[in-house]
Structure formats: structure tokens, C-alpha cells
Amino acid sequence: MALPLVLREGEDVVVQPPLSQAVGYVVVVVIGLVIAFIMVFLTKLLKRTVGEDNKKTEMFMTANRTVRTGLTASAVVSSWLWSTAMLGSSLVGYVNGVSGPFWFAAGCSPMIVFFAVLGISCKRKIPEAHTLLEIVRIRYGTAAHIVYMFLCLVNNLIAVANMLLGASAAISAMTGMHIIATTFLLPVGVALYTFVGGIKATFLTDYMHTFTIVIILCYFSVKAFTVEEVGSLSNLYDLVQAAGLRNPVSGNEKGSYLTMTSKGGILFGILHICANFGLVIMDTSFFIKAFSASPKAVVPGYVIGGIAYFAIPWAMGTLASSVVLGLENNPIFPTYPRRMTSSEVSSGLVLPYFAMTIAGKSGAAGILLITFMAVTSTLSAQVIAVSSIISFDIYRTYFKRTASDEDVIRWSHYGVIFFALFASAFSTMLHYVGVDLGWTLYMLGVLTCPGIFPTAFTILWKRQSKAAAIVAPLLGMATGIATWLGSAYALEGEISVASTGAIVPCVWGTVISAASPLVYSPVITLFKPENFDWADFRNEKLAFEVSDTASITSRRASSVARADIEIQIQDPDQQIQLKRWGKIATYWALATFLGHWVLWPLPMYASKYIFGKGFYAAWLVIAIIWLWGTLFVVGFYPIIDGWRQIWDVWLGIKEGRHRKTKGDESDFSGDHTPTEAVEEKGVLETTR
């Protein structure tokens, strides 16, 4: 029998896990391995049919830079569809009311869209890059390279710890699995398919996982209103309004959950947007996905993905927290007759309890599956990012400059295994010192934000000096940590897990950590400004050459990737197109920030408006419709956009059967493969 994992402070009542430990192990281990083997099979199928050879570094790390818009958009949504996106948005909705999920969503979408500006700029200035750190090293040298390597690794580690802590707590509450077993087993399948398939396996897994997750979320968005105790939007409004009267929220207008005028909400919004700018810009997995996308796919992929993502935390966070707040005093709620404890809320159990309330064991199984898929999908991106740092920025840079494809792939594999184990061990350590999802969600910006502006300046501002690039982020981190700890001591009278996890110290620390380098960098640059020539980025060849011994199929795929890169560099029309995409990306980034973070929420905060029944219904209906639109973007758009490669794979399979009947075992190394047919027509791009 499963043991009750979540003990209630000062209560004799416990919530029994609705599912058995066996179910948990089946999902975490067996389904994880099944997905891994499916990805391994697809990887081999793509190699056999369309020449995508993951034994070649350009394919393993950048998918030959040919990923189309649909798959890019799906991967972008997946990159931010952390388990914490669903668990965390429900958490802040429970604490702050309707403002919490909105600020969670608004804290993500603007910087995802902004990343299109950085991505297309990299495509134009340094199209052969594999990682952000290669750009830093070429421009500023070894010292800066090491500093930014530290910043990126800290970012990846704290991001993985954040998602593992939340996912492990949720899975343990659903099944009774030991939380440490969950923490170590979750990365197993991820490490396996990333080990074999590289970034393309990550893209494909992102697609499969994200599609499944959004289908389940859309199911919950309908199922909630079939429960008799909820029934309708009108009744749900009455339930939430009554919850505000029973337990008014300090800092909210008249204590209501139904208002954007929430001190806690806007503080979280400020903290979240700063922290997420850091998480995006200092996350090398975002750069890898941008480098992997074709030039025409970067901007639309990130813009569509960023806007589509907005609906997930907004819709599910609002709906889940509303149902939990409204039904907490109802016998069908898991913790009845008491409210959720602070430890339950901070562990991210609002969404699991919502699912259990509306769908019982089926709901618990749904949460178990989406939590597993969300954490493994985002873990895959983080693992491949750290793997790229270890192989390219450590091994190839400092140990073997002449490293071959085989050498780099081998060290990429070492990196996958090492980081999966280290991240699990680090998350376990945080758990045993009393850190949970709520703590990491609030404080992670202190560590992830110092590199925001120096990194953006590295790509966008040719005047930033080497000294500014090195000193500004380190000084910003020191200033942010000092502010965070000092604020915690000043406000709480001590420095502890509880005081450092409070929202006000975390807001101050995060804002100072993010904003101070914006002052430090220009001031330091004034002493000795540079005038960097962007053309210098192209002096160092980063893409791998194709060896003479490579198979015909592999050589074909890699040469096309190199041809695409050469076209970007040499073709004036291509450069004009990339500049045009850069302007479009800038306009979209500004529009998304102004719309999602300024023009929409801030007037509502200032108006002190408390939602009426009609307004609340419209608010939730729009969010749910937007969520179903996201289902189309992540599920069906990649299929529509990528039909040509799907068709090529099918032709390759048919051709393989035809050859097999003739006894030909050449594995498509001869003539007439689908990709070669395109080349014979003079088209310098792979069939995407």
C-alpha cells in the first residue's frame, strides 16, 4: 500500500495518495524508457530515410540548422512548459487570486518573443555557432568565456532543480513514491534518448510531450464544469467570491480573489518577468534551438510559440486555483474539512488537488502523466544544453582544438550522463535542507538575472568592452545576493530558508541583480569602449567539415547544412532578409511586452476593479479558448508545416522495402534518396 507522503502540520488528517506506488514507477520508469526507445527508433529511421545522421556533430547539436517553424514553435512552448508552469501558476493563483496566473503568463511570453531578436541576430552575425558561449569566447576571450560558462551552468542547474523539486513533490503526492526515488528516476529516460538522438530527438520529444500535455489540460478545462459542485462559470464565480469573504487576501482590493489589484500579485509579476528574462537569455538550450531552426523559422517560431504559451499558465492557473479556492470547504475536496497547509501550497499541490477534486483517480493519473512529460521534456533541453557546454566549450576549446566529430559526440554523451546525475543529486540536497518549489520559484532570479544585459549587449551592442562584459555580471550577482540576504534579515530578523524565500526580499534581490549590470556595463565601457566588427565572428570556422570517410548519406546531409550557412554569409539578399526578420522580431517583442505586461494588466491594477460575474466569465472563457488555440499550434501546426519531411520519410520507407525485396542492403547509400532528389534540382536546402 502506498504511504502518505504529504504530512499536514499540526493535523491528524492525511491525504492518501490516490494512485499506488506501482503506477508511479510504471509512469516514471517504464513509460520513460518506452518513450526513449521510440525516440531512438525515430532517430535511426530519420538517418536511414532522409540522411539525418546523429553521429555527426552538426546533426546531433543543431539538427543541420533546418528545423521548420511549426516544430520550432512547439519546441519553444515545450521549453517553457515546465512542471512549474502548471504547478506554479496554480500556486500563485491560490495565494493571490486571478492576478497570480496572469502575472505568471505575462512573466514568460514577452521574453520568449524577445529571444527572437537575439536568435535572428545570431543567425545573421555568427551563423556557424553552436552555443552562446562560443560567441562570448570569440568576442572577449578566455576570461569572459569562463565567467559566462559559470553563469550559464548556474542557470541550467537552478532551472533543473526548480522543475525537479516541483515534479517530484507532485508525483509523490499522487502515488506515494519516495520523493528521492522520483528525483533520480525522472532523468533516466531523458538521458537515454538525448544520449542517442541529440537535439532532433529533443525537438521530437518536445512535440510529443507538449501535444499530450495540452490535450490533457484541454480535457481538464471542460471536465471542471461537469462536476455538479462547479456546474457553470456563474456558480464558480460565486464560490470564489465566497472564498474571499471567508479568507480575505491581505494586499488585495477588499481582500477579494477576483481583482488584479493585488500587492502580492504585482510583486510576483515584477519578480517573475525579471527572473524569466534571466532564465531565457542565460539558458543555452534556447540558443541551441535558435541555431537549429532554419533562418526563416527563428522569428515566426519564437513569436508564435511565445504567444501560444501565454494561455497555459493563465488558463490552467486561473481555473485550477478558482476550483480549489471555491471547493476547499466541500467534502469532495481532498483536505476537507481543513484548508491546504502552507507546505502543501508551497510544494505545488494546488493543481494535483484540483485534478483529484474534479476527476478522482483519473485526474490524479492525468496530473501524474503531464507532470512526468513536462519535466522530462524540459529536462531534455537542459541536458543537451549542458552537454553542449561540456563538449564544445570545455573539451573542444581547452583540451582538444582539433577534436573530431567522434570526439565531440563522445564528450556530449559524457555530459548528458554527468548532468543528469549531478542535477538529481543537487535537487536531493535542496530537498533535505528544506527547500521546495515555492522557494526556488521566488529566489531563482537572484542567480539567473546578472547576465541579462551583458549577454544581450554582446550580441546587439558593438561598443561593450571586455572589462564590462566580465565585471558587470559578477558585480551584479554580488549586488543582488547582498540585497536579497540583507532584505531578508532586515524584514524577517534572520537569514533562513523561510526568510530568504519570502517574496519581498526575493523581489528586491532579483530586480537589483537584473538592473544593476545595466548601469555597471555602460559605466565600465565608458573608460575604454570598443568598436567590435561583427564580421570578426566569421573568421573562426565553428561548423564541422565533412570527413572523406563519411558515408554518402551523412556527407550529403552535412554538406547541405554547410551550404545553408555559406548562403547566409555570402548572399546579400539573404542578409537583407535576415535584417528584415530582425526588425519584425523587435516590433513583436515590444508589442508583446506592452500588451501582456503594461497596457492590459497595469490599468486594471490601478482601477481597483473587482471582477463582476460577466467579466469573470469572459476572462476565463477567453483564457480557455486561447488554450485550445495553443493545442492547434503545438499539435497540428508542426504536422501541417512539416508534411514534406513526413512524406520523404514515407517514401524512404517504401524505397527501403523495395530495395529489400531486391536484396539490396546498401541502407540508402546509393542514388535517388529523397534529399538527393532535391539537391539534383539545385535546391540548397534539406527537405524540412
TrEMBL record:
GO CC annotations, alphabetized: plasma membrane
Protein location: Membrane
Membrane topology: Multi-pass membrane protein
GO molecular function: urea transmembrane transporter activity
Start-end of Basic and acidic residues biased regions: 662-688
Classification via InterPro entries: DUR, Na/Glc_symporter_sf, Na/solute_symporter
Spans through the membrane: 22-46, 66-82, 102-122, 143-165, 177-199, 264-282, 302-327, 348-373, 379-399, 411-433, 439-461, 468-491, 497-520, 584-602, 614-637
Region named Disordered: 660-688
Protein keywords: Membrane, Transmembrane, Transmembrane helix
Family affiliation: Belongs to the sodium:solute symporter (SSF) (TC 2.A.21) family.
Protein name per its UniProtKB record: Sodium:solute symporter family-domain-containing protein
Species the sequence originates in: Lophiotrema nucula
